[in-house]
Amino acid sequence: MSTFLTMEFAGTVGADRSGPYDLLRDAATTTEWVRGHAADLGVAPDFTASEELREQTVRLRQAVRALLARAIAPAPPSGADAADLPGFAESLTLVNATALAAPTAPQLTWTGEPALTTVPAVKASTSARLRGRLATAAVVFLAGPGRTLLRTCGAPRCVLYFVKEHPRQEWCSPACGNRARAARHYREHKK
Questions:
Q1: CA–CA separation, 154 vs 172, rounded Å?
Q2: Cα 183 from chain centre
Q3: Which residues pair with 161 in a beta bridge?
Q4: Residue 155 region, left (φ>0) first, then alpha (ψ -120 to 50), else beta?
Q5: What pLDDT digit, counting tens, does each position of 124-142 carry?
Q6: Which one of 91, 126, 170, 174 is at 20 to 30 Å from 73 when CA atoms are compared?
Q7: CA–CA separation, 32 vs 34, rounded Å?
Q8: Is pTM, for the whole model, over 0.85?
């Protein structure tokens, strides 16, 4: 679950044929995204996000994306927001602090290789618990074996991270693979 939820959360910002998108662009779209993941996030199906929750969730997303970028280094980070990502230390602190609101709080330590420890969580609001679960999923993923399979999609205009499921996988989806092959064909035959 942590891999799925982390990739879904990090993928709330991206690009498609019509351009860049942000699935957490306002309280209404944040509400829709959270309701679609209500079981994983431990919220009621009628959950409604406030603007404050949206802002805090976007800040957490940027921190998670910064840690994903660090995990794939020295490969380049996703082009979606690489210039806007917070620093590594700030991101690690935010993700760990946010995870404290989950029922149990895994904490990520990163001296050499990432490692996972668990501490008791503090009592928190629904909003904090929701973000705590998102942070917990990221911590568990980044400290686990799936981190070594994390990649940035190299297709034109794609800005997603993905977990490599096959040795020959280069893109996050077949559609991105098709787009990359079409762009390569165009470049080769444009001359």
A1: 8
A2: 27
A3: 152
A4: beta
A5: 788 888 998 999 999 999 9
A6: 174
A7: 6
A8: no
158 occurs within a structural domain: no
Say how far apart CA 96 and CA 41 lie, in whole Å.
17
The β-bridge partners of 13 are 22
Residue 48 lies in a domain: yes
Q: What is the dihedral of CA 35, 20, 17, 154, to 10 degrees?
A: -100
Please identify which residue in the block is written with the tokens 């165009």. 186
User: 8: domain range?
Assistant: 2-147
Q: What are phi and psi of 88, to 5 degrees?
A: -60, -50
Considering the domain boundaries, does residue 176 fall inside one? Answer: no
* Assigned domain for 131 exists: yes
The packing angle between helices 126-143 and 88-99, to 10°, is: 120
Looking at the structure of the chain, the number of domains it has is 1
Beta-sheet pairing, 104-111 with 113-120: antiparallel
Reply yes or no: is the peptide bond before residue 103 cis, omega within 30 of 0: no
